[in-house]
From TrEMBL:
It comes from Nocardioides dubius. Gene3D superfamilies: Ribonuclease Z/Hydroxyacylglutathione hydrolase-like. It comes from the Bacteria. The lineage of its organism: Bacteria, Bacillati, Actinomycetota, Actinomycetes, Propionibacteriales. Pfam families: Lactamase_B. This is MBL fold metallo-hydrolase. Residues 46-259 form the Metallo-beta-lactamase domain.
Length: 355
């Protein structure tokens, strides 16, 4: 879902002067480079992997998606700054989603680099390790609680029973817990737990350099998906908004995002994202008014999607599922605030305006 500013698909990044997804190793600060890597069949087009040079080798923030095209481009881009895979000493991974974690997992194992990941992601990795025991997509149950049975069926049919390549999903060599400082050469990087997009999401702040590697927590032109995680998290939107407030309490830093161009202010963007979600909460509340009760899917049909305010029915099936789960996360916040109630029903959780 987009939230103001220049569309991600047309954004120029100030470090490169060209489209943010264009190939290269773009210098964003002394000893720090941004390398965009391709994503298959993804509207975001690319993920930014960041390289931090140090006396003993390289630290990478995120690793990219473990596909041949991304691996080849990462190798070529590192060579333009006089380095290679063997120089990577550690990966600091913002979260467990495949476009961030899988290449780090593969290269870490292959070249002996340490891989650090938030411990809140352990349940997701445990689920993947036991994927052969699953009888359906783990998202199906979440979609059913959102009242999206037909979408759940189509998600399951589209999977064709294929399992993920578990060689891409090894356990990290280090779990991150709480907020802590990590030595990266002569730098001190603050690892800040920011749950919401996923339970174990981290941002990494280099206060001395004035930058934050923000992963998918603070994105300059869009807001990350909320509720798209299994096992399901409790109150993911409330966690996300609390994490935005946490980032707002840190010094104002340049945003080095996973997707999109480098942006000037973590404070400004956190404020915009918080305002956006308050607006969505009000829209959800308006949808509930005058109804005797509604599922998340029914409320999602009343809302506009993406920066172009597309109708729900115009979205592809995958996006419809994401929209239903995100709407459910908003409705759960309304329940927590005492503005709505929730009751289990055969067709999903039914939300009603509080009397």
């Amino acid at each position: 879902m987009s939230t103001g500013g220049i569309a991600t698909g047309h954004a120029i990044s100030p470090d490169s002067g060209v489209h943010w997804a264009d190939e290269g190793a773009w210098k964003v600060a002394e000893g720090i480079y941004r390398i965009p890597l391709p994503l298959p069949m993804d509207a975001l087009k690319a993920i930014n992997v960041y390289v931090i040079e140090g006396d003993s080798g390289l630290t990478l923030i995120d690793g990219g998606w473990a596909i041949p095209e991304a691996r080849e481009l990462l190798d070529a881009s590192l060579r333009t700054i006089g380095s290679g895979f063997g120089d990577i000493k550690q990966f600091l991974v913002t979260h467990v989603h495949r476009d961030h974690y899988t290449m780090a997992s593969v290269l870490g194992k292959e070249f002996g680099a340490d891989v650090s990941l938030g411990i809140g992601e352990q349940p997701a990795l445990d689920l993947l390790q036991n994927a052969a025991d699953l009888t359906e997509s783990p998202f199906a149950a979440v979609l059913r609680t959102a009242g999206a049975q037909e979408v759940a069926d189509q998600w399951g049919a589209g999977n064709n029973g294929e399992l993920p390549d578990l060689s891409h999903w090894g356990m990290p060599s280090r779990w991150l817990e709480g907020d802590l400082s990590i030595a990266v050469g002569s730098r001190s990087i603050d690892a800040v737990h920011t749950p919401g997009h996923t339970p174990g999401h981290y941002v990494f702040a280099d206060r001395a350099e004035g930058v934050m590697f923000s992963g998918d927590h603070v994105l300059p032109t869009i807001t990350p998906s909320i509720g798209f995680t299994v096992p399901p998290a409790d109150q993911p939107l409330a966690q996300f908004m609390a994490s935005l407030a946490k980032v707002r309490g840190l010094p104002d830093l340049r945003v080095l995002p996973a997707h999109g161009p480098v942006a000037p202010s973590t404070h400004q963007r956190a404020d915009e994202l918080l305002a956006h979600h308050e607006d969505r909460l009000n829209q959800c509340l308006s949808s509930l008014r005058g109804r005797s009760g509604a599922t998340s899917l029914e409320v999602a049909r009343d809302l506009g999607w993406t920066r172009h305010e597309h109708a729900f029915d115009s979205l592809d099936v995958f996006s419809q599922g994401m929209a239903a789960m995100e709407t459910k996360a908003h409705l759960e916040v309304l329940v927590a605030r005492g503005q709505a109630t929730a009751d289990d029903h055969i067709d999903g959780v039914v939300f009603t305006i509080a009397s």
